[in-house]
Structures are given as C-alpha cells and as structure tokens.
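Lecture 7, part 2: worked example. A protein chain together with adenosine-5'-diphosphate.
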Amino acid sequence: MSAADQTQKERPQKPALQPYLVAVLLVALATVLSFGIKPLFGGRVPLTGFTLAVILGASYGGLGPGLLATFVSIGIVFGFVGVAISLIVHQLRRSNVALVRAKNELELANHQLSKRTEALSRSNEELQRFAYALSHDLQTPLRTAGIFTERLALHQEAHMDEGARASMRFIIEAIGRMQAMIQGLLEYSTASHDGEDQKAVTDCNTLVQLVIADLHNSIAESGAVITCDPLPMVDAIEERLRQVILNIIANALKYRADRRPEIHISAKRMGNDWAFSIQDNGIGIAMEDAEKIFGVFQRLHTAREYEGSGIGLAVCRAIIERHGGRLWVESELGQGSTFFFSLPA
Ligand code: ADP
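Predicted complex, written out as structure tokens:
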C-alpha cells in the first residue's frame, strides 16, 4: 500500500448526507435571518442571506448541496411571494366588496336626498305661491279699510274728543304699516323665483351710480360720503341686483351713527365668485343678531326709533341666493357694519 493510500484511509470521511443537511440548515438560517431583518429593509426580504447560504453550502459540500441550497432558497422565496400575492389579492377583494357596498349605500342616500330636495322645493314653491296669493288678496280689503278710515277721520274729526282722534291716528298708522308688510311679503314671495329670463351681463359700476342717484335726497340730507372701487361685470337680473345694493346703502344711511356717514363699496375675486362688500360707519349690529336680521319681519329696533318693516334684507338674501350667491354681515355694535354678498364670476 502506497503512502498516499495510507493518508486517504486515515482522513475521517464525511457521512454522505451531511453536506446536504448543512446546505438545508444554512438556507433555514438564512430564511430566519432574512425574515427577521425584513422590517429594516422596508418590508422587503433581502436575498443576500440566501446567496451566502448557497455559496457556503456549495463550498462545504460541493455541487449537489449547492444546487439543493439554490432550489430550496428559490422555493422559499417564491413560496413567500406567492403567499404575499394571495394575501394581497384576498385583501383587495375584501376592500372591493366594501367599496361596492359603500357605493350602493351612497347611491341610496343620494337618491333619498334628491327626493327630499325635490319635495322641499315643491313645498317651498307652494308656500311662495300661497304667500303671494294671500298678500295679493289681502291688499284690496286693507286698502278699502284704509280709505274708509281716513274718510271717517276727515268727516267726523270735529265730533271726536282727543282720545278718539288719537285712536283714529293709531288705526291709520297701523293700516299703513300692514300695507307695507304685505307689499314686502309680495316682494319676498316673488324675489326668489322670477326673472330668470332677464339675467344679463350687468355692469355693477352703473348700478351703484343709479342707486346713488335714487338716494340723492337722503345722501344730501345726511352729508354722506360714498366711495366705490372699480366693480366687475356679473351675470344678474339687473333690477333685482339694483334692489339689493339700494337696500343695503339705504340701510347704511338710515342706521347711521352720530357722525358723518361714510360708505365704501368694493369687490374682490374669491375663487369662482366675486365677493362684494358695502361697509358703513353706522350704529353697527351685535354679532349674535347677525343672522336674525335676514329673517322675514325681523328688526332690531322699534318703528318709533327707525321706520321700516324688517323685510328688506330677507328679500335681498332671497335675491342673492336666487343668483347662486350668499349674503351675510360682519359688524360690531357702535363700530359700523360690512355687508357682503357673493355672486358667481
Ligand atoms: P328694515 O330696515 O325695514 O327694518 P331690513 O330687513 O332692511 O329691514 O333690516 C333688518 C334690521 O337689520 C333692521 O331693522 C336693523 O335693525 C338692522 N340693520 C340693517 N342694516 C343695518 C346697518 N347698516 N346698520 C345697523 N343695523 C342694520
């Protein structure tokens, strides 16, 4: 026996399965490590561990264990990807079902909402028709009552004592107020639904000049100074918009403080709208009353303090809303008020 054969015999032999077991163990180790440090790689499994396992497996056991390590690694990675894909698909299906259910519920709610809106606008129209008919029909008997009361007062005044004369005066004043209120109601009931066909491109600068001409006497009497920035053109029912500007400026003159009235009109673009503002330095309004004054027949003062029927701003709001805008006020008692209205640009 040669010396070389002798050495070969003395070297301890590896059991045949050991390299394969080592390769599998290395891959198992790589799997545990790679999945353990997955969060550090943003949820992705790093493949370096598997590559190392294949290299170590091959260098320890040769081609067979190296190939085994490769196949097991590929199996594990693909298995994991497969499981992940199925989980994602399952999750997607569940979200899809939830989405379809939410969509159906939304459609149902939408349908109910549009039915309610329809019913509401129908009853609103009916109410307006009722208010119009009522105020229209009430005008005639009230006018008759007014005429005959005045006639009675004229012919019988000589036979009346002071008390009867005062009562007669109250009756005539009350009839006058009632006529103004009925007229206001009539305007209110028509403000929000007529004139759609009269909408046209309207120059707001011209409207303000017309209003200033209309209010010439009150402006001269109060010494008011009215200033106006350049205003835009808007799509509006000219007569109605003029009514809004007139009402707000007339109020600024009526509710003036003990100083010279100063009124400033301007407009600025806000998204898809023009926001107009009419600012005064009058008596102002407490902010808790800022919504109340837009209600029908809502007033903050008695007829003795300031005459009026409390419907002007309600009509203005109905007109502006009819144009797709909003009307509101910002004010402080004693510091003046700024009325804002928006109109689509
Ligand atoms: P009216 O002037 O006939 O009372 P409006 O509807 O025009 O009716 O106004 C409602 C109320 O809002 C008024 O009674 C008044 O109290 C308040 N108001 C309106 N404009 C102003 C203003 N510029 N400054 C202070 N108060 C105001």
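The two ends are 110 Å apart (CA to CA). The chain has a mean pLDDT of 89. Keep this in mind for problem set question 3.
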